[in-house]
Amino acid sequence: MGNSGKTLVFRGDFLYNRGLLFRSRAVSAYDNGFVWQDRQQATLFNSWRTGARLVNWWEKKLQFASRTDVGLRRSNNQDAYATRVAPDPEAWQRRGHLFLVADGMGAHAAGELASQLAADTVPHCYLKIQNQSPELALAEAVREANRDIHRRGQAHAEFKGMGTTCSSLLITQLGAYVAQVGDSRVYRLKTSGEFEQLSFDHSLVWELRRRGQLSGLDTASVPKNIITRSLGPSPEVEVDLEGPFPTQPGDIFLICSDGLSGQVEDPELAAILGSMDPEEASQALIDLANLRGGPDNITIVLVKVMETLGNEVNNNGSSVGIPSPPPTPVPPRVSIHFSQWIGLGFALLFILVGAFLAGVGSATTGILLIFLGTSAGLFSWFYRDPFQASATYFPKHGRYGNGPYMTLQSKEDEQFIARLNSLVLELEQAATDQNWSLDWTRFHEGCKQARKAADQKEYCKAVREYCLTISFMMNELRNQNAPSKT
Question: Is 324 exposed, middle or buried (0-12, 13-18, 19+ CB in 10 A)?
Fold first, then answer.
């Protein structure tokens, strides 16, 4: 990022006019007894209070945080997300926990509608499909969301061609599954320090690289905003299914739109995830992306596994246990395509004509037509669009897909510490130049703790203290431009 981008970020009028203020929506896992879902919808969780403290069935086993931010260059937010956490052990055993991020595209409000349809439809259809294993139900739910978005786009001229990415994470007792369409991403930071990208980017850059038509030196010349697959433009879509990836206590999953991954590098993502809890990290990542220009909407869902997810206890005290492996997956219900009906019609015509010819004396020709008609009919009946059947069966090695597609080892990075220190200094200079009114004691204490940790080679603590200080300053910046109450 060039210096000009940083200069613009620190102009208070720029931040105010671009709608930074009051546009960041934070979602806490445990907020007033509710688990918030999508953007504004909430459902009461199976929880109870002891005094003023909320006690939650999942509190010690799972932490998650979700945030979305419009960024600094966009006038509206076309991202959406959804979280569906099982309310009890029985529901966990049947369907696990579901999280997703969708990044819409399209003129006017089309992208916003497409992403929200994905965030609403996928969880709804997933929970409704009961005759398939969880991962296959998820893939079918994504395909159903695609059909719904496509129908809406075809029905209204202003929404025609609208689309959205959809990156879904399903955590079950057998492991984590990923259902992927588009270039939003699903990452995992393992307790070993390995940082993995579990999803494949359906982008021009990644497709060319997969085909061996692009070397590392050529990447900069290829447009990065061209995606090759999304929900909505076509009536059917291919869904990449990955997993299961075994989970362990301490694993952290990140689902994000490219408003984050395009501004914060993978090693930086790993460093922040490994140094902060989900709530802190989600805010720090959004602040860092905005400080680097915030050219797009930014959406984050963070999930941290706290304890082994298995052998849960029922409300009546009995053990739920780990379920046995699911039966061999069966193909999802697939509607017959229009072309199949045409093929069946021609097959029937061939059979009828062949039977007629055989009856009037042209036995050889008649039998040949009956054979061709029967073959064509069988082919038409059993033919399935590869897009619809892409996630039907287990591969031979027992897992779907080829992920992870990127793996790096998170390690101490003094250069990242130096970059965070530079951001803090620039924020301090901007605050001084614009005469901000803020708690300077708190700011200087944060800087002191961060630099002390860096000097003592306490890498994680230094990253956390610097990020907390940056988030504090960004919050103070919002407060500077907040309309005063009269």
Answer: exposed
- 375 and 322 in a common domain: no
* 256/378 Cα distance (integer angstroms): 44
Main-chain phi, psi angles of 115, to 5 degrees: -65, -35
Q: Is the pLDDT of residue 151 over 60?
A: yes
Clarify whether residues 297 and 258 are in a common domain.
Answer: yes
> Which position has the token pair 């739910």?
141
**Statement to judge: residues 169 and 188 lie in one domain:** yes
Q: In the numeric block, which tokens belong to residue 218?
A: 């050529």
Q: What is the pLDDT of residues 97-127, one digit of tens each?
A: 999 999 999 876 899 999 999 999 999 999 9
Structure tokens at 128: 């409704």
Q: Are 416 and 268 in contact (CB under 8 A)?
A: yes
- How far apart CA 230 and CA 118 sit, in angstroms, is 11
- Whether residue 3 is contained in a domain is answered as no
Do 79 and 173 share a domain, yes or no?
yes
Per-residue pLDDT of 324-366, as tens digits, reads 344 444 444 444 444 556 666 777 777 787 777 777 777 777 7
Cα-to-chain-centroid distance, residue 435? 40
Rounded distance between C-alpha atoms, residue 290 and residue 297, angstroms: 10
CA distances from 470 to 15, 262, 293, 299, 341 (A): 16, 20, 15, 19, 61
Residue 347 lies in domain: 338-383
Asked if residue 164 lies in contact with residue 233, where contact means CB atoms within 8 angstroms, the answer is no
Cα–Cα distance measured from residue 404 to residue 258, given in angstroms and rounded to the nearest whole number = 18
Check: CB of residue 258 under 8 Å from CB of residue 105: no
Residues 244, 368, single domain; the answer is: no
Say whether pTM exceeds 0.85.
no
Say if CB 296 and CB 257 are below 8 A apart. Answer: yes
**Are residue 377 and residue 429 in the same domain, yes or no?**
no
Tell me: do 273 and 219 sit in the same domain: yes
Q: Residue 6 domain-assigned?
A: no
3-class DSSP state of 276? coil
CB neighbours of residue 24 within 10 Å = 20
Spatial distance between the Cα atoms of 404 and 238, rounded to a whole number of angstroms: 19
